[in-house]
Amino acid sequence: MRDRQQISDMSAEVWSERLFQRFEGNPFPLTGQWELTCRCNLKCVMCYTDPFNRPEKIRQELSYEEIVRILDEIHQEGCLELIFTGGEPFARRDFLDIYTYAKRKGFLLNIFTNGTLITPKIADHLKTYPPSMIEISLHALTRESFDQLTMRRGAFGHCLEGIRLILERDLPLTLKTVGMTINRDEILKIKKFVAGLDEKVQYKFGSDIRPRLDGSEGVYQYQLPKEEIRAIEQADEEFRAERVRQDRCKQEWIDQGKQQCGGGNYKFHIDAYGQLQLCSNNRRQGYDLRQGSFREGFYQYLPEFPCPARRPAAGTQLVNIGSGDGQEEFQETA
Ligand code: SF4
After folding, report:
1. Greater confidence, 132 or 19?
2. Which residue's CA is minimally distant from atom 2 of ligand 1?
3. What is the DSSP letter of 297?
4. Protein residue with least CA distance to atom 3, ligand 1
């Protein structure tokens, strides 16, 4: 029998990319990320939504009725997958209603959460209406560093309890860490801790620090220098292999002149106020879903929004510089 790759074996990225090929490059809203709120019970030092975690801004966020109306429109356009994020999605009192409505419509749902607000009741509800993935941020492994990083005493205990409740119900779980100057020594320990939890639990490591939504850039003080990120990746076999895979993929896109990003092709982003955007990292332009339809926004406006990642920079190449232990390692050159 021919060995066929299952959807569950593929990353969401690869899955979306393959499915999108079926549409022969024509835009189609396969998957979207929805920042349902900037409200959050924590105050992580590097958080980009935190400046909008204020009562006057929260009052301007989409209501349940508006969200449901937009969900209907997205569903009508054939979208398959949504990622619900924040802020902290569970900080919205109506989050489970929104989630359940979307689930009943048949969307594949992924929740990005800090895990600290998950209660037995919420976990039971998720067991009844299972998400395709719950991604919980675990940026530190000691009470002191976790609470210091999230600026909330007791956050570490609540996060571990949230993880326990999800594991207890055998729900799909990914734990993830943003590598920063303040947790640089804990990253590989966190990875080891996750590996010891349950073999089904996945782990993601990132290093992306973004300017805050109010434009302030003080968060960059927590950014790890490139060399340190490289050193962390090179110290772990799986991280190393993942780096090679990502670099190969990127080089393939460059060689084939393909767009490096799915934003506006098969992906979209919606912010807490109903602005339809290319992605969470590019909010230069938005289409107001309060005023117009998702269909018009996705097909007529999104393709025109500016993004430097639409085409690879001319002449960009990744060269294999090796890692000294026989592993491939790539570096970008102009
Ligand atoms: S948990 Fe997420 S949304 Fe909340 S403060 Fe931390 S980074 Fe921001």
Report:
1. 132
2. 87
3. I
4. 87
